[in-house]
């Protein structure tokens, strides 16, 4: 079960690194500004959490809600520690709401991942 969560969180960070590279290239070589990409970054964040939950649910093959939630919570913990230890700041209320929605999104991905990988389906 913990291996599935690690795979999920790893995929979240992999997607985040690729998206960060793409966004930084766009910001460097185009006339786009950071504020114009706010919604794009938010959508990519939700997609990466959903995909991470989906992967953890698919790897675990059972308890998708738990695996997706654990994936989202581990991501939240890493981000909280990074912000607290690296920037000496706590989450704001707005950030808590975002991260709560991220955990819910990862849980939905975990449920779908278990259902998509289920061997008990009949065609």
TrEMBL record:
Pfam families, per database record: DUF3792
InterPro entries assigned: DUF3792_TM
Entry keyword Transmembrane helix: yes
Lineage top rank: taxon: Bacteria
Membrane-spanning residues: 6-27, 39-58, 64-84, 96-116
Keyword list, A-Z: Membrane, Transmembrane, Transmembrane helix
Protein name per Swiss-Prot or TrEMBL: Membrane protein, TIGR04086 family
């Amino acid at each position: 079960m913990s291996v599935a969560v690690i795979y999920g969180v790893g995929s979240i960070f992999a997607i985040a690194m690729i998206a960060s590279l793409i966004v930084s290239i766009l910001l460097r070589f185009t006339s786009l500004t950071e504020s114009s990409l706010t919604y794009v970054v938010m959508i990519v964040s939700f997609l990466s959490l959903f995909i991470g939950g989906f992967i953890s649910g698919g790897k675990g093959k059972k308890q998708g809600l738990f695996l997706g939630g654990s994936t989202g919570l581990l991501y939240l913990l890493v981000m909280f520690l990074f912000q607290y230890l690296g920037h000496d700041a706590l989450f704001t209320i707005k950030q808590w709401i975002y991260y709560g929605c991220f955990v819910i999104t990862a849980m939905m991905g975990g449920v779908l991942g278990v259902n998509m990988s289920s061997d008990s389906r009949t065609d």
